[in-house]
Structure formats: structure tokens, C-alpha cells
Amino acid sequence: MPNDQAPKPTPSNVMHGPAISIRNLHVAYGEREILHGVTFDVPAGETVVILGGSGSGKSTLLRTLVGLESPTSGEIIVRGKNLQQLSPAEWRELRQHIGISFQSGALFGSMTVGENVALPLNEHTDLDPATIEIMVRLKLNEVGLDGYENYMPAQLSGGMKKRAAVARAMAMDPEILFFDEPSAGLDPIIAAGIDALLLKLKEAFGITMIVVTHELASAFLIADRMVLLDKGRIVANGTPADLQASAQPRVRQFLDRVAEPELSQEIDYLQMLTGEVPRERQ
Amino acid sequence: MLITQTIGSATIDALSYIGGLARLAARATRALFMDMFSPRRLAYGRAVHQSVAVGIGALPILSLISFFIGTILALQAAYELRKFGALQFVASAVAISVSRELGPLMTAILVIGRSGSSFAAELGTMKVNEEIDAMETMALDPIRFLVAPKLFAMLLMMPCLAIWADFMGFLGGSVFGIIAAGFTLKTYFIATMDALILRDVVTGLIKSVMFGLVITTVGCQEGLRTGLGAEEVGRSTTSAVVKSIFLVVMVDLVFTALFYINAKP
Known about the structure:
The complex is a heterodimer.
Chain A: E1 20-29, E2 32-42, E3 47-52, H1 58-65, E4 73-78, E5 81-82, H2 88-95, E6 98-101, H3 113-124, H4 129-142, H5 158-169, E7 176-180, H6 188-205, E8 208-213, H7 216-222, E9 225-230, E10 233-238, H8 240-245, H9 249-255, H10 266-274
Parallel strand pairs in A: 3-8, 3-9, 6-7, 7-8
Antiparallel strand pairs in A: 1-2, 1-4, 4-5, 9-10
Helix pairs in contact in A: 3-4, 3-5, 4-5
Chain B: H1 2-36, H2 44-54, H3 59-81, H4 90-128, H5 131-137, H6 142-180, H7 185-195, H8 198-224, H9 230-262
Helix pairs in contact in B: 1-6, 1-8, 2-6, 3-4, 3-6, 4-6, 4-7, 4-8, 4-9, 6-7, 6-8, 8-9
């Protein structure tokens, strides 16, 4: 094998074993269980797309992986550490190695784009202001937002906000990046731009990425592996080719965009709205 | 059984809420204290910005309201005082009621409307927009970053505003004193100073600091507890204003009672 084809030693692909291991994960809001024993691995340096319809539990899974929700049982191992056993100091340390791009962007509205990107650097590093300014420009350059450091988030379009959020998530050069619906609410051209950005980040930095989405075209373009969630359970886990070849009814229904059969008639839909059980189930 | 159950449940909820406020105040105070030893980390800019918004921004409307309250108090006192030919005591009546009670209380009510509601709306909007979540996932403590500068601003500005409200109240009372009670501006203020003892002003200032603590913690707690959706921000804001007013009056009652008990006859 020629030397130029050898994989580059990046923070992610020098890690041993999977970047994230999830074992029998249960998450509940009060009495209502959302995730019912989810188990899968996220290999280092790969992009894993978590697919699922509305209410499938994919956003809850993402929030649990980044520590915003607590599991009722099960294990999440990130960078070799069990999240349930981390002290607050260890959480702080871990969070400096991960980045999250939220669905809405979640940029701080009272700060400029540049200040948003600079914030984690200001808080967690001893870099001098001039170096931080250079780093902010570099990060914005990486996401195609040169010259936007003095803009307020409200002055940006939806796609630009998502790009700025990615720049902020990358500020600390994280080993793992999480994306919540990166293409949601964007027109196809802007969404394609976000997909291209994710591919570029993977290519350039070998970052491990977990992307939650229900956009099929985007998912098949960026994924190394796919996990399909349905009502809090994994119904498929494999490469995009595996999912395409799957004959599993729920996978086919999701990929072929087939409506729920019991809701296909107007009367069933009305019964669902009124809380009555559809006729087929009576 | 049902009534006792309801009362018990409401009491537990109220105590739990006040416990939450105390925890929030303790965490914000701790963050302020810790940041004193690490000046680079303290969001000085934010604290100064908040102080300007809470303090300087409130001055025009507070001045007007306090001035009118002073005049109204003088008029109300004059109703009774003139029956006894004691109109000259109008300055004393205004001085004591404004400095002990109405100056700090009116300041608190105004600051609740301006800043307490704004704290709840700001944090509530940040919660709905996932900005608080983003902050946590960046290993930034929202209490230190968002609540502590607000607490700093309120603890600094509330006593200043209360003093200013006292002064404007005296000035409002002097209008009546000059027009109807034969005072000049100078003699009115001399009468005011004669009527006041340091304790009157100090008790007002202590109350104003406690009001600042209540307004900040209630506003921030309501904001941080905002649920999903824009209407929840409105609910949090309304709730912050109503609860703040109630708790400020309760704190006022408790402290007034304490000062009364400890006062020498």
C-alpha cells in the first residue's frame, strides 16, 4: 500500500475500540419509557446516522449520549469512560472533547458569531486573545463563514446558523461530534451544503460523528453505519447497503416512505385523533 | 381529609420551591465568590452590563414614581395632621414611611416589572432555543455564566436604587410641604433629616438587598424551569412577576417584624 493511502493518525482513529458503546440503554421521562434497551457501538472515526420517525426516541438518545438526560439503566461508554460513573470534574473534562450542533443551532443570541465560537476557547484554554481570534477565523473558514465573525446570529440565515453552530462545536477540536437534525428545515441546496460540510470534516479530521436525522437522502450520503430506531427500539443496525438490502418490514416501510397502514383510511385517522382504537385492532 | 391533604401538598410544594430558590442563590453566590479569585473567568462585562440594565435603566421611571409617591404620602398625611394643626410634621411622616417602607418596596415592585420579568423571559427563551443545553454541553455552568452576573448586579444596584427612591420620595413630599405647609426646600430637608435616624435608612437598605436576592432567584428559577414552546416563556414571565411580588411582600413582612422586635422602645 502506498504511503499516501495510509490513514492519517487523527485524535479519533488512534483511539482503541469503539468511540462510544451503548449497552441496554433505558431512558424514561417520569413513568413513560422512551428507550427500551438500546445497544450499539459507534466505531472511532466513523459517521453513524441514527434514523427514526417522530417520537422514535432518536433525539432522546442523542440528549442522553451528551449527558442532558440520565438513563434509568444501561451503560454508555464514551472514550473508555462509563458516563454513569463520572464525577462533575470528569464530565467537564469529557465535554471538552465532544461537540454538539443542536437542531436550532442554539447560538447565543446576545453574542456575535465570533464570540460564540470563541466562548469555549476563552473558558477552557489559556490562549491569548490574538490566538483565539485566529482560531475563530480558522473555524469559521472551515465551515464557509469567512468574514461573519461580527454578525449577530439573528442576522444569519438558517443554513448559516447551522454552519456557525458546527464551527462552535468544533472550537475545541473535539474527537466526537454530535448533530441533531443538521438538515431539518433547510432547502435542498442548503441541506446538500451541510452534508458536504460533514463529509469534509470527516475527510479532513477523521472525527467520529453521530448524526440524528430523518432525512433519508442526507443519511445515505454521509453515513458509514446506520441505526434505525422505532418506538424506542433498534430495528436495524448496519451499513447503508445493509439497510437498503433489508427485508425487515419496519425498515422497508421507513425507507420506502410507506404510511402507517392502520391510518390509511380517514375513519382510522379520526379514531386516532379521538383516542379510539382503529378498527383493525378491535 | 381532602382539605388537609391539599394543604399538606401545597405546603410541601411551597417549601420545595423556596428550597430551590435557596439552592440557586447558594450556587450563584458560590460562583461569584470563586470567580473573585479568578478574575479572568468572571464575566465582568456581563455583570457591568446587567448592573447598567438593572440600575441605570430603571432610574427615570423610578424617579417619577417615587416622586409622585412622596407627594401622595404628604397629601394623605396632611388629611389627618391638619386636624391637629400639625402640618409641620408632614416632612417627618413622609421621611419615615418612605425610607423604612415605601422606597425599598416601590423599588422592588418596579425592578420586578423591569428586570425580574426580563430575567425569566431571557432564560426561558434561551431554554426553549436549547442555548442552556448548549452551554451545559460546552462544560459551562449556566448558573455561573447567567445567574451570577444578574445576582451581582441586583445586590449592587437594589440598595442604590432604594436610596435614590428615598431621595425622590422626599423631594415629592417637599412639593406639598412648600406649597401647603409653609416649608422652603431647605427647611423641608432639614425637617426630613431631623426625623430620620440611621436605623430607618439601614433597615430599608437591608430589605432592598433581600428583595434583590428574591427577585433574581425567582426570575432566574422560573426562566430555567421553562418548558417547551413560546407560550411557556410567557407563563414563566408571568409566574416570575406574581411570585416575586408575593415573596417580596412576605420578606418585607418578616424583616419589618424582626426590626420591630429588636427595636428599643
